[in-house]
Amino acid sequence: MIVHQPASTDTVESLVCSNRFGTFFGVPQQVFDTVWRNLTKPDRSAVAYVSMEIGADPDVFHPLRDFLEQKGIIDSPNPQRQALLRKYLHGPRKIPNYSGGLGVLAGDTLKSFADLHLPVLAISLLYREGYFSQIVDSKVGQIDHATRWTPEATPTLFLLRDPQAPDQPLTIDIPFYNGQHRPSMVKAQVWMKMEIADQLDYFVPEFLLDYSLPDAPPWVVESAHQLYNAKSTMIKANQRRMLGSAILPLLETLGMATDTIHLNEQHGVTVTLHLILRELQEKLGDAFPDTMTDADILAAAAQVSRKIVYTIHTPVKAGHDRFSRDLYSGISHKAFQRILNLLAHDEDIAHEYNFTAMAMRINRAINSVSRLHRDVTKKQFPAFAQKIKAITNGVHHLTWISDNRINCFNRIPSLRDWRNDPSCFSAIAEQDLPLLAKLLQNAWAKDNQLLIGYVNNMLKRHREQMIETWIDPPNHLSGLPETEWLKPGVFTFGFARRFSTYKRADLIFDDIGRLSDILIKNNWPVNFIFAGKAHPADEPGKYVLKLILDNQEELYKRSNGLGKLVFIPGYDMRVAKMMVAGVHAWLNSPKRPLEASGTSGMKAAMNGVPNISIMDGWWVEGYHEGQTGWKFGYEGPVDDADLSEDPESLLYTEDAAAFYDLLPTVLETFYTDPESYLTRALNNLRLNIPIFNTHRMAAEYVTQYALQLVPPLAATIDRFRQLYQSDRPEQ
Hints:
The protein has 731 residues and is of the alpha/beta class.
C-alpha cells in the first residue's frame, strides 16, 4: 500500500507554486512539478477526463483550508499572500457548474484520482450563470433564476496566463464549422481548478473553458452562460460542440500528452469528429474531403476508437443527445456530415443523429454505472452488448462522511487508516464494535440535531419571508407555532435528487390516507425531508415538485400532526451532505430499471444510514439481503422491463402499496428495537463503504485506461480493484 505523506510545509510561501501559465496556491512547488510532468510525458500516458459538468464545491471538501486552520496559517505580512489566505479561508464556497448526480460524481472521481496520484486532467466548461438557482413558492412551485457567482473570487480557481504575455489571460483558438469548409475560430480563456488530494501531496487539474469573452459571437454568448440551457435545441447542440471541439486545442496549448480521452457521458463526443478528420488528413492529404471513401472514414474511426473510453449514465431517452440532420448541416461541413451519416445514424429516427449511438461506436471500452444498468444498456444497444461492462459508481468517502462521523471513526483502532483506505471498514476488529456502536449512535444523534436545527431555522426564515416578500413559503409548517416544527430523534426520511418523473418523488404520498393511518395506529411521528431541483424545461418534473408542496398540509392534518413533510429549496452539495448524515433512512423510489445508479444513497451509506429503496441502480448491489436496509416494489427482470416514462406505466399504485406494507416494519424496528436498527447502520459501514467509494471505482477505471504505474501505486490500485468486481454477473 502506497503511503501518502502530508505536505511538509508550515508557511504560506511554501504552498505557492508556478509554471509558465501562472502562479497558483495549494501545493508545494515539487508537488506541482510532479503533477505537470506526469501530464506532459512523451509516452502520452496521461488521461483526459471530459465532463459537461463537474461538481466539487469547496464547502464540502476543503483539505487546504483544513490544513491552513490546523497549522494556524491565517496571516501573512505579504499583501498578495494575505489576499490568497483571505480568499481560501473566507471566500465564496460555491462553483455552481453542476446540475446533479452526473457532475457530483465527476467531482468525486477526480478527488479520488488526486488521492491516488493518478495522471489525470479534467476538461469541462465554465458557465458564468452556473446551472440555475431555485426559489420555491407554495402556490407557484419552482421558480428559476440565474445564478450569480464570481470565479475570480472563488478558492481553488485560477485563470491561466499567456506565457508570451504574462499579464494577459491565456486564450485558445477553437475551430467551429458553421456550414463552411474553413472553420471560424472562436476564443476561450482557460481556468484551472486544483482538485487537491487530502494530504496536499498531489492534485488533479480541472481545465474549465470560459467562452464569455467581449468579442465572442452572439451564438457563443448565448450558449456559454448557463449549464444545460434549454431555450433551443441549437443552444444545446452548440454547448456540446463547445466542449468537444475545445479538447484538442486545449491539450496542445498546454502541452498535455494523452492517448486516452474518457467521456463521462457523450456530451463531448464531437472530439471524435476532429480526431477522425486529423486521421483522414494525415492519410489522404488536404484534399481528403473530396477523395475519402466510406471505408476510409471507418478505418479512421477505428484508429480514433483506440483513444476513447466511454461511460454511459442513463437508460432514459431524454439523457441521449439527438439532433436533426438539418440542424447539424448548418453547424458542420460536408466531411463532418459524411462521418455523422456513418457513425451517428439513429436506428429508429432516420432524420436524426444520435450522439449516444456515436459514442457507442467510437471507443475502446464502454461501461455502465451499475450491474443492473449494464443489463439495461445491453438491451437498449444490443449491437454493442459484448463490449458493455459494468463499473459501479462510488462516492468520495472523505467528502461525504460527516465531521461527527469522522470524529467517531478516528477513535477506532482498527480504522486508523480509513482516510487513505476505505476498505479497512470491511475488517473492523470484533473488540472495536461496542465502542464503534456507541460512538456512531452519538454522532448520528448530533448530525440529526444539526439537520433538524437547519430545517427549523429555515422555517423561521420562511415565516419572515412571507411578511417581507411576495414569496409564499414552500412549507406548511412555517405558518404553524414553533412547537409544531421538527424535533430531533423523530424518525426522519431523506429524499433529495433531480425531480424527473421516473424518480417518482411523490410515490409514497400516493395514498396519504393509508400512510396517515399507519402513523396514527401506532402513534409514530415521522419527518419527511425533501429537496431537489427540476430542470427549468422539465414541466412534468416541476409538476411532481409542486405535488410535494401540495401534500404537506393534507399529510399533517390527516396524520394528526404525526407526519411532517418539509421541502428545502436551493438544494446543493452542502445541503446534501447535511441530509445524508442527519436522516435515519434514505428513500429512493424510481421506476425500476430507470435509475442507472443513484449515488445519493451511497452517500447515506457512507455515514451508516440505511436505505429504503426500490431494487434499482446501485441498491441491487448494496442491499446485501437486507443487512443494510430495506427494499420494496417491483423487481421484475430487465428483459421484461418497460423503459417508458409514460405516466400510465410508472407503477405508482403497486409500488406505493409495497411501501406502505413495509413501513410498519421499519418504524417498529426504529422505535422499539434500536439495537437492530443500529446493526443495519454498522453493516453499511462494514459492507458498503469498502465497495461504493470512488477509490475502488478509480481502480477499475485504471484497467480501462491501461495505465502503466510505478510498482507501489500499481499495488495499491490492484488491491482496491480486488475489493469488488463490478462486472460480475448478478446471481
